[in-house]
C-alpha cells in the first residue's frame, strides 16, 4: 500500500498544476472508463442503462453525461451489496465504511485497494497545502480509534493523535492541550464548542499553525473568530464518506479546489446542468472506486461552481459555495427555501450572540413554525431575544411563527456532528 500511495501522491502533486484542457481530458477518460466498467460488471448499472437505452459508447462528450440517470441514496440502499458491489474481482480485498445516517438510514460503502491509495494520496496533497510537515504533531478528531496503524505512523511519520469525538468537551480540550499540536483536523460544529469553551475559560494553551475544518458549513465570521483566537490559519474541506475529500481550499481561501482526479462534480437544477455561479444539487461521479461505483450520485448537498481562476495557479475545477444538506433547508410557506449556511450566518450576531449562547438548534416542525433551542451561558437579556427574533422574522419574510426554548444541552452524535438545523417537513 505505501509504494502505491507514494506513486499516486507524486502523480497528483503534478496533475494539480497541469492546464485545464489536460485535466478535463484525463477526467473524461476516467468517466468513460468507470461507466463502461459498471455497465459490464455491475448488475444495477447494466439494468438501469438498458432500461434507459444507454450504452457506454453513447457518451462521447461531457454533455452526453447528462444522458446518464441520476441515482439516489435509496438506489444504493436497495441494491447493496449484491447488485452494486463488484463481488467477483474485489470480494477479498475490500475496505468498508458507512455514512453516519444523519439524514436517515446509514449507507454502506465498499472500496478497493487502489481507491484507498488514491484517497490517501489526495488527503496528503491537501494536508501538505497547509504547510504541514510529516513529523509535525497532528491532532485528529475522529469517532473511533483506527484498527490498524500504518507502519510509518509507528515511526512518527504522518502520525494522527486521535481524540475521540464522543468524549466530553472538557476531556477533548484536556487531550488537545496535552498533545499541543501544530495542526488540528475536526468537524466544524464540534470545534465551535471547543473554541467557545476555551474562550469562556480564557484557557488558550495551544497555538496550532493551521486548523482544518470539515463536516458542516461554517460562516466566514465564525471562521475568522476561530483564526484570530488561536492565531491560526483556517482551512476547510468538503468531504463525504462516499468519496472522501471532494474539494478543499488552498492558501488563497477563496474557493474550493475539486479533486478532478477522483471525482466529477456537477451542479443540477430543474434537471439541467448549471455551468457556473448558480446554486443547485451537487451530483458526484466517483472515478476510482471500481469495487462499488457511484455514477451521477445525488449526495443531497446544495452548492455552486465557478469558472473563475484561482490565484494559486491551479486549474482544477472550483466549487464556489457549499450551502449545506438539502434536507436541512428551511421551507417557507411561499415556496422559497433558506440554506443552513445563510441562516446560521444571519443569526450569529457577532460576539453578542455567543456572549449569551453556547449552543443552539433550529427545528422546523411545520411549514409556518420554527423552534430555536438555546443552551444559554447566562441569563438571556430581553433585548438580545428581541433582536434574535427580529433577525429571524426578517430573513423568513415574516412568514413563520418563531419561538425560543431554553434547554440544558444539545447532544453530540457519536461521530462528532451537531445538526444545527433540522427540518422535519
Question: Describe it for me?
Answer:
The protein is of the alpha/beta class and 425 residues long. 33% of the residues lie in helices and 26% in strands. It is built from 13 helices and 20 strands. The strands form four sheets. A twelve-stranded mixed beta sheet has the order 4-3-5-6-7-8-9-14-13-12-10-11, sandwiched between helices. A hairpin with a 2-residue loop joins strand 10 and strand 11. Helix 1 packs across helix 6, helix 2 packs across helix 3 and helix 8 packs across helix 9. The longest helix is centred in the first third of the chain and has 22 residues. It is globular, with a radius of gyration of 22 Å. The mean pLDDT is 90.
Counting DSSP H or I runs of 4 or more residues, the number of helices is 13
Overall mean pLDDT: 90
Q: How much helicity do the residues have?
A: 25-40%
Task: State the total count of DSSP E strands.
Answer: 20
Q: Quick one: overall form?
A: globular
Pick out the low-confidence regions.
none
Question: In whole angstroms, how far apart are the ends?
Answer: 46 Å
Tell me the radius of gyration.
Answer: 22 Å
Strand content: 25-35%
The biggest sheet amounts to: 12 strands, mixed
Widest sheet: strand ordering: 4-3-5-6-7-8-9-14-13-12-10-11
Structural class comes to alpha/beta
Attribute tags:
20 strands, four-stranded mixed beta sheet, 425 residues, 13 helices, single chain, alpha/beta
Summarize the structure.
With 425 residues, this protein is α/β, with parallel strands linked by helices. The chain has helices at 2-15, 20-41, 43-51, 73-79, 87-90, 113-128, 151-154, 169-179, 188-201, 220-230, 340-347, 350-356, 382-395, and strands at residues 94-98, 108-112, 138-142, 161-164, 183-187, 210-214, 233-240, 244-249, 256-258, 263-269, 272-274, 280-286, 297-306, 318-325, 330-331, 337-338, 357-366, 369-376, 401-406, 421-423.
